[in-house]
Specification:
two-stranded antiparallel ribbon; alpha/beta; 11 helices
Length: 315
């Protein structure tokens, strides 16, 4: 039987969820007033000791748009607010359509190209094609150095890691890593993490898909590999499970002001997680996401309490 967390159900967008929650009196207050006071939690990149904010920004799908000013404007505002609220890590890829180029143009337009910690990827086959993508990413971000280059979804991993090690040694990239989003690939990921001197691993992890807790997160902690988490909201599926559900009062024990912050705080409270990359095109969602990186975080007992609530809602 297919595990429950992999069964596909009707999708609900975050916007639709918030409308339903408001109608049901859930009391989600988003907007400029939503961001909590205080600095972002910082996490250490094990291989260097550098600290980065725990909440980053993803761009897959959400930034894959044309150059119509009406489409670009809210995404530019998302990036502006992200940087204003203490964010730094922005993840993208040449394979995300127009996302990488648009992100580079927005940062240049804001005069903030040097403020961001850019994480992008090689997403192709063959050494020469990989080098071409690396050079194109440099051009798009107007950079001579990219913070993090990742082999996307283990595509031609051995070939591209050889290139990336040379680029890291030359100072053209600061960190190297690999990515995947399917738990079915975790055995292959584990083999690479054990074999290669990686700086980062990007994977899928959230309160619904917790496979990484068993072996990969402990392995990364042991090997000194920073962990970047994708799909923190499961493409909106997590909101479906709490649709029309009232938030329990004890969420305030660790500063969760919304269901979105509940989901993100579960992830960032894991000690092996370095940064999460929720994607959004809406400024009010961005502010809510950034709130998850501030204030109290659940301890082990709090995480068990969160998981028990989640399992009650999804039983």
């Amino acid at each position: 039987m297919t595990p429950k967390y992999l069964r596909e159900g009707p999708k609900i967008t975050r916007s639709a969820f918030l409308r339903l929650a408001a109608a049901a009196g859930a009391g989600l207050a988003l907007g400029e007033s939503a961001h909590a006071a205080g600095p972002q939690h910082m996490r250490t990149i094990p291989k260097s000791g550098e600290k980065i904010p725990v909440v980053g920004l993803g761009t897959a799908h959400t930034f894959n748009v044309g150059r119509d000013p009406a489409m670009v404007r809210p995404r530019k505002e998302v990036v502006r607010l992200f940087l204003r609220e203490g964010g730094k890590v922005i993840d993208t890829s040449p394979s995300y359509g127009a996302s990488e180029a648009l992100t580079g143009d927005i940062l240049a337009g804001l005069g903030s190209g040097d403020r961001a910690f850019i994480a992008t990827k090689i997403s192709t086959w063959g050494r020469e094609n990989g080098v071409a993508q690396l050079n194109e990413s440099m051009r798009r971000f107007r950079r001579k150095t990219i913070e993090l280059e990742q082999v996307h979804n283990l595509k031609d991993t051995d070939v591209h890691l050889k290139t990336l090690r040379k680029w890291r040694d030359a100072g053209w990239v600061r960190y190297i890593g690999i990515t995947h989003f399917r738990p079915s690939a975790y055995e292959d990921i584990e083999a690479v993490v054990k074999k290669e001197p990686l700086d980062f691993l990007q994977l899928r992890y959230n309160i619904r898909v917790r496979d990484a807790e068993e072996r990969l997160l402990p392995l990364c902690a042991d090997k000194g590999v920073a962990v970047m988490v994708n799909l923190p909201y499961e493409r909106g599926r997590l909101f479906r499970a709490v649709k029309r559900k009232s938030k329990p009062g004890w969420l305030a024990e660790f500063g969760a002001e919304s269901w979105g912050q509940f989901f993100l705080k579960y992830i960032v409270s894991h000690p092996a997680v370095t940064v999460i990359i929720p994607a959004t095109r809406k400024p009010r969602h961005l502010l809510d996401n950034m709130g998850a990186g501030r204030g109290l975080l659940p301890d082990a007992a709090g995480r068990r309490k969160m998981l028990k609530l989640w399992e009650r809602f999804t039983a």
